[in-house]
């Protein structure tokens, strides 16, 4: 069940930081049918770009800042978010039961999630999205061009028909939130956290290889960079891009920087040369690190300590766990308003 959620999670993480000059505001709501499962019965987590900014769940009953610059928000912000959290608890409890009834389920562990957000790109254009799901599968999604909810499961038709009706027009309200209120809050958060969000840290690069019969596996480990967007590829003779047989996602390091590993399988011939090319916003020009066949490892800057590598693996497990239960919802929406003084995150409505 959980594995089916990974592709969309990865997609949204990538979309949120496609360009170093782009910024995004995202929220993840989660409700589960069995509180004893190890997950809170209800949780809400907010992000600006890759930074977690706010967190609420039934275990703590508190809404609190996750980065120092979120303490700059206006008076009343945290109390409103706490109230939204309390409201969300009741709404999601209802929606979990509703979703289970739609699927004729009377027990067991089930998860209802919704994620939505907005992004302002480097050229000033804005985009938004809102997706809902149940048990790791997409349930329905908002068409942000038309303001209409599209069911992706038969069980979602009841909700989408009601939300799209002339009496409710839920999609229009959500579209307005994503295009206006969400963008306004994104701008406020970016201004408060600009020093952190837009800092530039040069990447370190390590290339290594291992023999595999008649072929050679080349690995390019890029680490310690910020912001998240990076382009890494293997090149042959400085001109031809080599197909990457394995690429990890961009993963977080404990110090707030990132890392990625790109691997390629090649058959070296006399006269051929291979290099790892790295393009990042912190660099004036692309790094070109040549693989030396006689050297098992070639390093620029400082080799990443084993301690950090181990810590990254641990952190990755935590990140995956966090993102898994912030990703789907069976039939509820974020209630929005055209009032620009509205809260940064709006509480979901009943399905």
Largest sheet: 8 strands, antiparallel
The poorly predicted ranges are: 1-20, 296-341
Mean pLDDT: 81
Sheet/helix structural class:
alpha+beta
Distance between the ends: 22 Å
The number of E-state strands comes to 20
Helix content: 25-40%
N-to-C SSE series?
A: HEEEEHEEEEHHEEEEEEEEEEHEE
Radius of gyration: 23 Å
The helix count comes to 5
Write down the overall geometry.
globular
Summarize the structure.
By secondary structure, the protein is α+β, with helices and mostly antiparallel strands. The chain has 5 helices and 20 strands. It has helices spanning 6-15, 77-102, 157-163, 170-197, 306-324; strands spanning 23-32, 42-48, 51-57, 63-65, 111-120, 126-134, 137-143, 148-151, 204-212, 215-225, 231-236, 240-242, 246-247, 251-252, 258-266, 274-279, 287-290, 297-300, 333-334, 348-349.
């Amino acid at each position: 069940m959980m594995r089916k959620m990974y592709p969309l999670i990865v997609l949204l993480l990538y979309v949120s930081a496609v360009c170093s000059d782009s910024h995004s505001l995202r929220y993840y709501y989660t409700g589960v049918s069995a509180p004893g499962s190890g997950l809170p019965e209800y949780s809400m987590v907010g992000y600006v770009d890759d930074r977690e900014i706010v967190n609420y769940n039934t275990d703590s009953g508190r809404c609190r800042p996750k980065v120092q610059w979120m303490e700059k928000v206006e008076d009343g912000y945290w109390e409103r978010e706490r109230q939204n959290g309390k409201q969300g608890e009741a709404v999601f409890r209802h929606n979990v039961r509703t979703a289970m009834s739609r699927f004729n389920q009377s027990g067991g562990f089930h998860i209802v999630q919704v994620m939505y957000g907005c992004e302002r790109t480097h050229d000033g254009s804005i985009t938004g999205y809102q997706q809902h799901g149940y048990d790791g599968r997409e349930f329905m999604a908002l068409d942000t061009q038309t303001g209409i909810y599209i069911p992706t499961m038969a069980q979602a038709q009841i909700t989408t028909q009601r939300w799209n009706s002339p009496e409710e027009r839920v999609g229009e309200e959500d579209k307005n939130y994503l295009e206006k209120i969400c963008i306004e809050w994104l701008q406020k958060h970016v201004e408060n956290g600009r020093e952190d969000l837009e800092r530039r840290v040069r990447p370190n690069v390590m290339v290594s290889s291992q023999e595999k019969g008649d072929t050679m596996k080349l690995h390019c480990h890029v680490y310690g960079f910020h912001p998240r967007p990076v382009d890494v590829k293997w090149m042959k003779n400085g001109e031809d891009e080599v197909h990457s047989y394995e690429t990890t996602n961009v993963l977080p390091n404990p110090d707030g920087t990132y890392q990625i590993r790109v691997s390629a399988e090649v058959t070296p011939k006399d006269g051929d040369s291979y290099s790892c090319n790295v393009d990042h916003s912190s660099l004036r020009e692309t790094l070109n690190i040549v693989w030396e066949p006689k050297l098992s490892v070639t390093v620029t800057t400082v080799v990443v300590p084993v301690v950090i590598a181990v810590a990254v693996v641990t952190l990755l497990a935590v990140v995956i766990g966090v993102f898994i239960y912030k990703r789907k919802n069976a039939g509820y929406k974020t209630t929005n308003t055209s009032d620009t003084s509205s809260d940064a995150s709006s509480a979901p409505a009943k399905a």
